[in-house]
Amino acid sequence: MTKTHSLAALTVAAALASGCFGYERESTVGPSATGISALMGTWTSNDVIPAAGQCSDFKWDVTEQTANTASGSFSATCAGDLKINGTARGTLNGAVIVWSAEATASVPGLASCPISLAGTAELQDDSIRVPYSGDTCVGKVNGVEILRRR
C-alpha cells in the first residue's frame, strides 16, 4: 500500500470510529439543573425604583428547603416608598414555582401594615421570572420581576 493510500485509509478509519462514540453534554447552569436545591442562596432583581402600582428591588434569601419546597426571608419595595420585609415560600413542580410571601410593610408617616404577594414563577436558565400580584395597605400591586442569583 502506498503512503497516500495509507493516509486515506487511516483518515476513513478515524472518521468511521468517531461515529461509534457519542457525545452528550448536560448543562448544570441555572436553578432547574438540580431541582429545588439549586434555589438555595440569594436571589435579587435589578430594578430599584418601583413604578406606581408595582414592586421592585426584590430579594429572596432562600435558607430552607425540603424535597420540593423552598423558603426564606423576602423583601421588596412596592407602590413608591412602601418597604416590605417578611418571608416567602415556594413549591417547585417541574420548572414552575407556585409561591407566596407574607410581610409587614412600612412607609414613612404611616403605621406598619400586612402585605401579601403571590404568583407562579418560572425557572429559566440563569434566572427566575416572577409574575406577582397582591394587596398592600396602599392598594393592589402586580407586575413581573426577574430574579438572578447573587
Descriptive overview:
Residues about 1-35 have low confidence and may be disordered. The protein is built from 1 helix and 8 strands. The protein is mainly β and about 150 residues long. The protein starts with a helix and ends with a strand. An 8-stranded antiparallel barrel has the order 1-2-3-4-5-6-7-8. The chain is globular.
Q: Which bin fits the share of residues in helices?
A: 10-25%
Order of helices and strands: HEEEEEEEE
What percent strand? over 45%
Largest sheet: 8 strands, antiparallel, barrel
Poorly predicted regions: 2-33
Backbone CA Rg: 24 Å
Gross geometry: globular
Mean pLDDT: 74
Strand segment tally? 8
Structural class: mainly beta
- Please report the number of helical segments: 1
Ends apart, CA distance between termini:
63 Å
The strand line-up of the biggest sheet is 1-2-3-4-5-6-7-8
Give a brief outline of the structure:
The protein contains one helix and eight strands. It is mainly β and 150 residues long.
